[in-house]
Structure formats: structure tokens, C-alpha cells
Design goal:
67% of the residues lie in helices and 6% in strands. The protein has helices spanning 3-43, 46-78, 90-103, 136-141, 144-159, 162-188, 198-245, 248-260, 282-287, 298-309, and strands at residues 81-83, 109-113, 120-124, 130-135. A 4-stranded mixed beta sheet has the order 1-2-4-3, sandwiched between helices. A hairpin with a 5-residue loop joins strand 3 and strand 4 (130-135). The protein is elongated and about 75 Å long.
Length: 321
């Protein structure tokens, strides 16, 4: 790898570390503020606000720690992935070993998802605790060069520490949605105590309105942030994969096969869709090509890789770096 490219990847890793810390701090501040407002709006006095603050602190801190140390296990379990050893899938294991060596990374744990839809993702908090999961459909439908391109893409996510940031974003966004949903449902069932004194009653009403607005808007903004970040990282991982394999055709062919495959990935859901190399919820992607898409347009990714095959310089997809 050239010195300039090495510097770019080191900058990317440092940026991901900073973003992960910033994300956690921002999430904790938001949860604490949200807890304070809900507590006051619910009970109608400072004691209620303090109680809401304490509950939010423990809920936010616990969620953050669980996300960091056990988020990958949650994702793999939700995806029904089973860990394999070399003799279970020798070709896959060898390709992962090759790409780990090429990237200068430890060998990750390898998982298979028993599903005929072709797809793959990587997860974990750092390269020493990383996992790569592929579907059985991917192994059946791709040749070795294509499989190598997909694994190189996932190992690039590991090397760039995208896995940590994506895992934290997914679970913390999910926690934000759960807190907001819990508050809104409690209102539906008549929650909250109304103050009789005029001053506190007006303040309680104002905070109740703010809490409702936050509960509605916060999950939307958190989701948009998650999707925007996911789109940017796919371009960079494609370019990084070519650095590892020196073969843009393998990944381009793989993306074409995965994109043309019509089978939905049964175990994928909104919380894990952004982790996969191609959006596994394809019908949703067709309806939403821009703002709410978890991935950049696959045609654009293939076009950039095809341009690399002939030594051309892509004119768009600036995030590929």
C-alpha cells in the first residue's frame, strides 16, 4: 500500500474512533436531557425530573456498555448466524485468511447464515474482536474471485473500524426509538400527573409538548444520520477492497449477482440492514433510492468498480476517496 493510501486509512481509523466517542457522548447527553424533560412532564415537579434523569443515566449507560461489549453477539444472534471452523467451509475459510493477511489483521471469527439469498456483513468492536458472516446462498452463487471481493469489502470495514461505529449506531439508534416509543405509548394509556398550581402546571404543559416533539423527531433524525453514514462507508469499503485484491472485477461481478438475485434475506431487518454489503430488504430499496436508503445505488458502485478495471477514474462517488 502506498504511503498516501496508508495515511488515508490511518486518518479514517482515527476519525472512526473520534466519531464513536462523539456518538456515545451525544447519545448519553440526549438520553439524559430526554429523561429530565420526560420526568418533569410526567410528574410535574423537579423531583420527577431528577428521577427521570437517574433512570435515563442508567438506561443510557447500560445500553452503551452492552452495545460496545456485546453488540456483535446481539447482531449475530438476530441474524441466526452459526460459527464455523475450517473443515465446515474450507474455501470460505481460506479466502478470509487470505484477506486478513492482506489487510494485516488478525483472523476474524467466521459465521454462516443458512439462507439462499446471497449477502454478507462484518461486525465487532475492533479487529481483535471481529466477525465475518456470509449466507449459504453467497457461497453457492459466487465463484472464488467474487467471494474474495466480498470478503475484502468486509475486511475493509474491519480495518477501517467501520464495524464499531456501525454497531454502536445501530443499537443506540434502536435504544432511542425504544425510549421514544415507550414515552408515546404511556401517553396513549393516560400517563402523567397534572399539577394544580398555575406556574408549575404551565411549565409541565410546555415540557410535555417538548417531550412529545422530541419523541417524534429524535428517532427520525437518528435514523437519517445512521443511513447517511452507512452510504458513505460502502464507497470507501469498495475502494479498500480493490486495494486488497487488486481485482475490481471480482467485487463488481459479485455485486451484480447479488443485486440481480430476487430472494429476500429472511433474517434481515431494519436494525441490521445497514451492515450488509447490499441492502437485504430490496423492495424497500427500490421504493427509497435516496434519503431513506441504507446503501448507495448499487449501479453506481458497480460503475465505479468497472471504471477501475480499465484504469479509468470515476467521475462520481467522491466518498470513495
Amino acid at each position: 500500500m502506498s504511503g498516501a493510501a496508508e495515511a488515508t486509512f490511518r486518518e479514517r481509523i482515527a476519525q472512526n474512533r473520534r466519531n464513536s466517542l462523539l456518538l456515545f457522548v451525544t447519545f448519553l447527553v440526549f438520553v439524559l436531557a430526554f429523561g429530565y424533560i420526560i420526568g418533569y412532564a410526567w410528574v410535574g415537579d423537579p423531583a420527577g425530573a431528577f428521577f427521570g434523569l437517574v433512570i435515563a443515566f442508567f438506561a443510557g449507560g447500560l445500553s452503551g456498555l452492552l452495545s460496545y461489549y456485546a453488540g456483535d453477539k446481539v447482531v449475530l444472534a438476530a441474524s441466526r448466524a452459526r460459527r464455523i471452523e475450517h473443515d465446515d467451509a474450507p474455501v470460505l475459510f481460506n479466502v478470509v485468511e487470505e484477506m486478513a493477511i492482506a489487510a494485516g489483521l488478525p483472523m476474524p471469527k467466521v459465521y454462516i447464515i443458512d439462507d439462499s439469498a446471497p449477502n454478507a456483513f462484518a461486525t465487532g468492536r475492533d479487529p481483535e474482536h471481529a466477525s465475518v458472516a456470509v449466507t449459504s446462498g453467497l457461497l453457492e452463487k459466487l465463484d472464488r474471485d467474487e467471494l474474495q471481493g466480498v470478503i475484502a469489502h468486509e475486511m475493509s470495514h474491519v480495518r477501517n473500524l467501520d464495524i464499531r461505529y456501525s454497531m454502536l449506531v445501530g443499537i443506540l439508534v434502536g435504544t432511542t426509538v425504544l425510549i421514544a416509543d415507550f414515552f408515546l405509548r404511556s401517553l396513549w394509556w393516560g400517563g402523567g400527573r397534572r399539577r394544580n398550581d398555575q406556574g408549575n402546571g404551565q411549565l409541565q404543559l410546555i415540557l410535555m409538548i417538548i417531550a412529545i416533539i422530541l419523541a417524534i423527531l429524535a428517532p427520525i433524525f437518528a435514523r437519517l444520520l445512521q443511513l447517511s453514514i452507512s452510504r458513505q462507508r460502502e464507497y470507501l469499503a469498495d475502494a479498500s477492497a480493490v486495494e486488497l485484491t487488486r481485482n475490481p472485477k471480482g467485487l463488481a461481478d459479485a455485486l451484480e449477482k447479488v443485486a440481480k438475485d430476487q430472494e429476500p434475506l429472511e433474517v434481515a431487518n431494519r436494525a441490521t440492514a445497514h451492515l450488509y454489503i447490499v441492502n437485504p430488504i430490496k423492495r424497500f430499496e427500490k421504493r427509497s433510492r435516496s434519503l431513506f436508503s441504507t446503501h448507495p445505488p448499487i449501479e453506481e458502485r458497480i460503475r465505479i468498480l468497472r471504471a477501475m478495471e480499465t484504469g479509468g477514474v470515476p467521475q462520481t462517488g467522491r466518498d470513495a476517496g
